[in-house]
């Protein structure tokens, strides 16, 4: 049920030629970001689309191989804005600065994920993170310096708070995490971050009062709100209903929902775990601020569709690209 994701390696900021509405052009490079109108539909025009995304490169590769139909299907992912996950690899400040700069030059808002809490993922599929609290605060400072006052959506530490509230799924509570999260909220917000603290999904922390209390301790009052369904598959209606219960406990706090892979809702088949690369899933609602509810601040694609959740069902390690899985998500997506 948890979010499983890799660090995004630094230095991957080189631009490839942008996708056009008719497909992907050759492998040239450009110093200027591509025109937003050629990449993403108007409903998602606020958020930055990386023209050098894994999905965009896959589209180009498949077109060169003559797999035109598959490439066209995969454009459903490549055209959409997907969050970039920032871990501890390389120079965090430069990495964030580069991404935010590209988004700003394109007239878009970047969506980033801060993912480096100590003992990240409780040592499971996406283990890692900062070595200790001091190192984490230093890392958050680097992240903030990269924002440089530019408005940027930041999803703060997928799973960190829910794992703490559930005693790290039996491995012991992560003492001090709420204080670390609260400090991060203040630092990133002051630097231009529109910060949403990750709060899991309806199947993770079922006690909404307990979750709301954890969010208070984690600084939600100073944040833009909280995030739900990151890297999960639960249906938007179910997540929204759950989010409103949490919001009620917090005086109407806003929240965002990860709709990247929830087009067919959760997997209810016999294979376990249900959250790890389940079959038969589909892309969900494309990223947009137009959610139809004032408390739902945005639908976002936080998890990159096609990235592995972990080594289950024959999949590679968490965060590695699975083109066939991505293609399945795209083919199963409802027409918009």
Shape call: globular
Q: Biggest sheet: strands, sense, closure? A: 7 strands, parallel
Structural classification: alpha/beta
Distance between the termini: 28 Å
Portion of residues within helices: 25-40%
Order of helices and strands: EEHHEHEHEHHHEHEHEEH
Count of separate DSSP helical elements: 10
The radius of gyration computed from the alpha-carbon positions, rounded to a whole number of angstroms, is 19 Å
- β-strand number: 9
What is the average per-residue confidence, as pLDDT, rounded to a whole number? Answer: 86
- In what order do the strands lie side by side in the largest sheet? 3-4-5-6-7-8-9
The proportion of strand residues reads 5-15%
Indicate the low-confidence ranges by residue numbers: 1-43
């Amino acid at each position: 049920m948890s979010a499983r994701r890799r660090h995004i390696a630094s230095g991957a900021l080189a631009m490839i030629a942008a996708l056009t509405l008719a497909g992907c052009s050759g492998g040239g490079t450009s110093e200027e970001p591509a025109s937003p109108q050629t990449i993403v539909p108007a409903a998602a025009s606020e958020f930055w689309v990386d023209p050098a995304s894994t999905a965009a490169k896959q589209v180009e590769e498949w077109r060169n191989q003559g797999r035109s139909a598959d490439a066209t299907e995969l454009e459903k992912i490549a055209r959409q804005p997907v969050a970039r996950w920032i871990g501890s690899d390389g120079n965090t400040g430069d990495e964030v600065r580069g991404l935010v700069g590209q988004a700003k030059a394109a007239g878009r808002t970047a969506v980033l994920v801060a993912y480096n809490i100590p003992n990240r993922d409780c040592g499971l599929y996406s283990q890692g993170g900062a070595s200790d609290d001091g190192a984490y605060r230093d890392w958050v400072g680097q992240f903030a310096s990269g924002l440089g006052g530019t408005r940027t959506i930041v999803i703060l530490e997928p799973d960190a708070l829910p794992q703490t509230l559930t005693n790290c799924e039996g491995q012991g509570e992560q003492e001090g995490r709420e204080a670390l999260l609260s400090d991060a909220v203040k630092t990133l917000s002051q630097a231009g971050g529109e910060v949403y603290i990750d709060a899991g999904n309806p199947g993770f922390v079922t006690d909404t009062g307990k979750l709301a209390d954890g969010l208070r301790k984690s600084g939600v009052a100073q944040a833009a709100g909280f995030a739900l369904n990151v890297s999960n598959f639960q249906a938007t209606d179910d997540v929204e209903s759950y989010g409103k219960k949490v919001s009620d406990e917090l005086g109407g706090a806003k929240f965002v929902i990860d709709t990247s892979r929830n087009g067919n809702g959760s997997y209810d088949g016999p294979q376990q775990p249900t959250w790890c690369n389940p079959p038969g899933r589909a892309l969900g609602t494309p990223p947009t601020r137009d959610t139809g509810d004032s408390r739902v601040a945005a639908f976002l694609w936080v998890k990159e569709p096609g990235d592995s959740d972990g080594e289950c069902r024959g999949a590679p390690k968490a965060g590695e690209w699975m083109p066939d899985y991505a293609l399945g998500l795209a083919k199963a997506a409802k027409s918009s």
